[in-house]
Amino acid sequence: MNSADELTTLASWARAIRAALVQAEIDWQPLFDQAGIAPEALADPEARIPLSHTTRLWEAVVAATGDDAFGLRVARHVNQTTFHALTVTTLVSDTLLDAMERTVRYSRVVTDAAGTSVGGDATQCWMDLGHLPVEPPPAWQAIDAFAAIFVRTARALVGPECLPVRAVFARPQPRNLVAFEQVFRCPLTFAGPHTRIVFDRASAEMPLETANPALRAVNEALLDDMLRSRTRDDLASQVRDAISRLLPGGRCTQQAVAEALHLSLRSLQRKLAEQHTSFREQLERTRRELADRHLRAGQVSVTEVAYLVGFSDASSFARAYKRWTGQAPSDVAGHDAGGQRS
Q: Could you tell me which of 74, 98, 114, 156 has the fewest CB atoms within 10 Å of its CB?
């Protein structure tokens, strides 16, 4: 069980809460004082606040407003810069499902407590908004806000007619049920086993005109850097970071990675095994992710991509990429999800 004092969230969450309080004509300063959040933290775009403090802030806000759906109000004050590069990355995704997957991948940039996932079946796909085991747990209102933000993002991407098939919330039914009905505009379930927003698969897989692989690649690089800084104690993340630096020119060996991390080869192997992974698995994952990013950005040739991900020739890279994805690199290079060259 994690302690909420050890996990953090972006201070930009608190800025959005402050904006919603100002709009509601409620004095925000005493509530922030009660939660132990210093005003100067709100001025720093890189600042992070202990999860325990933001949870206390949400509790104070609900008590002051009497609105247990206040998270939905806060969602309206989240803009394209609130979550750094994450918002831009989702807005230039190839499909709504792609945006869901990127939101899950980078959710820990927003909060260390994130436990989100994407699932689906033949006709539907969904995003589960969970969290790590932590005491005290995140406020219901924080999860409500994140759900509302993603539904708003879906409408921005697909169109105003894009509505969830249904929404399930782990929280108890709110007193302010009307607010939920107005935001989600779909069948609602409360006190469920999880918080899940469900979309029609056909709509979620429809190619988006706003897709921009080059812009997405730039923002994903920023997010990857942020994630590495958030997960610096995670050996697998450290291994992938070292692999990324060593791949160009084929200098990436298990021994070289071990030396870069100041470990013996045996210690590296043992520690990775303890995390139920291996050097080969992390190498394959890093190569595939980097290759996919470079190819879709369309800024370098397939031969150059092969070099950047550690292959000695383009034909070896092409065989590996075909094995990873079922596609040839030339079929992906510089194309968006709709098959149009970027």
A: 156
Instruction: Please check whether residue 138 is in contact with residue 116, taking contact to mean a CB–CB distance below 8 angstroms.
Output: no
- Decide if 221 is inside a domain: no
Name the nearest CA neighbour of 279 among 246, 322, 312, 318: 246
- pLDDT digit string (tens) for 212-263? 999 999 999 889 888 877 655 567 777 887 888 888 867 789 999 988 877 8
Alpha-carbon distance 223 to 207, whole Å?
23
**Whole domain around residue 49: which residue ranges?**
2-75
CA angle 140, 192, 121 (to 5 degrees): 115
Same domain, 166 and 247: no
How far apart CA 335 and CA 342 sit, in angstroms, is: 5
User: How many other C-beta atoms are found inside a 10 Å radius of the C-beta of residue 182?
Assistant: 11
Residue 327: CATH number of its domain: 1.10.10.60
The kind and range of the H/E element at 113 are none
Of all residues in the chain, what percent are helix, strand and coil, respectively (each to 5)? 55, 10, 35
- 96-121 pLDDT, tens digit per residue, is 999 999 999 899 889 988 889 999 99
